[in-house]
Amino acid sequence: MAAAVELTAYVVAGVSRRFTVEGGAPIAALDDVSFSVARGEFVSLVGPSGCGKSTLLRLLGGLDTPDQGHISYGGHRVEGPYAGVGMVFQQPTLLPWRSVVENVLLPIELMGESRSLYLDRAHALLDTVGLAGFTDRRPDELSGGMQQRVGICRAFIHDPGVLLMDEPFAALDLLTRDEMTLELARICQARPVTVVFVTHSIAEAVMLSDRVAVMSARPGRIREVIEVALPRPRGPDAEANPVYHDTVRRIKSLIYDSGAMRRNTS
Ligand SMILES: Nc1ncnc2c1ncn2[C@@H]1O[C@H](COP(=O)(O)OP(=O)(O)OP(=O)(O)O)[C@@H](O)[C@H]1O
Ligand SMILES: [Mg+2]
Fold first, then answer.
1. How far is the CA of 221 from the centre of ligand 2 (A)?
2. Could you tell me if 226 and 218 are in contact, meaning their C-beta atoms sit under 8 angstroms apart?
């Protein structure tokens, strides 16, 4: 039993979340969602716009609390934000008055650690995402895709054991997106990291994930969790593997059979 808890990162048990908006009917964002994520596992969430993916990710990160059910991480109930988690939000959410490199170093300051120890790492990360020449710029001097890349570096700066990523590559051009997908796959291959990854791209989900959780339209529920039996490491040639196409087809048919995702899929 103890060993099982150690191997489990997240347990989501019967989680519901509804939002009340002034003057309107309550919105049921999530309804009775249950699933688990093993330590070191890469799980993607796919589903239609508004099905509660971002809500679920915020709950996993302890930035919001469920109305019903509970979430635990490493055997402990999640009741607020906790250390060791890197979050990439759907919007980059950078501090406008800070330079790029100062934004990347923010989690280090919040943890009360020495900035100077992480300065080289911050520059190396920014270099990886093609922002070496922009480290002293302010966020409003960057494009949306560049800001999102800064947000990705910020999530990686303290080498977190968990990454919660909300459509991190959505604002990037196709070429950078492909590069970042491979880079993330390399990072996950090199060290044990647990990832929950929200995407509208089924191809991206299959390329990166151990399992893909397909959600139904609002109120969001887990419709089915699909295993991706593609061998690792997965380079660009993984797309030639018949398993890749079978898995993409299976997820697509699940989504379209349910009428769940009408747009934003690839
Ligand atoms: N703070 C909030 N207040 C009121 N309603 C909210 C709030 N956050 C989310 N919602 C509602 O909950 C539902 C789920 O929203 P959420 O952002 O989780 O969807 P999503 O699956 O991430 O969508 P997308 O793919 O467009 O990003 C939506 O109907 C949204 O309007
Ligand atoms: Mg969202």
1. 15
2. no
Q: Closest Cα to atom 3, ligand 1: which residue?
A: 19
* Cα dihedral 40→176→54→29 (10° resolution): -120
Q: Residue 218 C-alpha to ligand 1 middle, in angstroms?
A: 9
Give the number of whichever ligand sits closest to the CA of residue 59. 1
Q: Which of 20, 46, 51 to mutate to test the pocket of ligand 1 (most atoms within 8 A of CB)?
A: 51
Does ligand 1 lie within 6 Å of residue 176's CB atom?
no
H-assigned helices in the chain: 2-7, 53-60, 100-104, 106-110, 115-128, 144-156, 174-190, 202-208, 242-257
Give the pLDDT of the chain (266 residues) as one tens digit per residue. 444 555 899 999 999 999 998 888 889 999 999 999 999 999 999 999 999 999 999 999 999 999 999 999 999 999 999 988 999 988 889 999 999 999 999 999 988 899 999 999 999 989 988 899 999 999 999 998 899 889 989 998 988 999 999 999 888 888 878 877 877 887 787 778 999 999 999 999 999 999 999 999 888 999 999 999 999 888 878 899 999 999 999 999 988 876 554 444 44
Give the residue whose CA is nearest to atom 20 of ligand 1: 50
Q: Which residues are near ligand 2, the ion (C-beta closer than 5 Å)?
A: 54, 90
